[in-house]
Specification:
alpha+beta; Alpha-Beta Plaits; three-stranded antiparallel beta sheet; about 70 residues; about 40% helix
């Protein structure tokens, strides 16, 4: 698994996951439950991971939709 994006913005994360799902790319969100440790403040970023074989294609999808540069 490779890191695709890391963000504190839940809307950006949801948008990225929807884009990947539309392209048939499986993704996995890490650090979702870290809000328990931080008290729900949203200061710890969440990470979106994809399989190694899909990383290059996922990165193109993210760049094409201005999710990452």
């Amino acid at each position: 698994m490779k890191l695709l994006i890391q963000t504190n913005d839940p809307a950006k994360m949801a948008f990225a996951q929807a884009l990947l799902q539309g392209e048939g790319i499986t993704s996995f969100e890490l650090d979702v439950h870290s809000s328990i440790m931080e008290g729900g403040l949203g200061i710890l970023p969440r990470r979106l991971m994809v399989a190694d074989r899909d990383h290059w294609r996922a990165a193109i999808v993210m760049r094409d939709n201005d999710v990452m540069t």
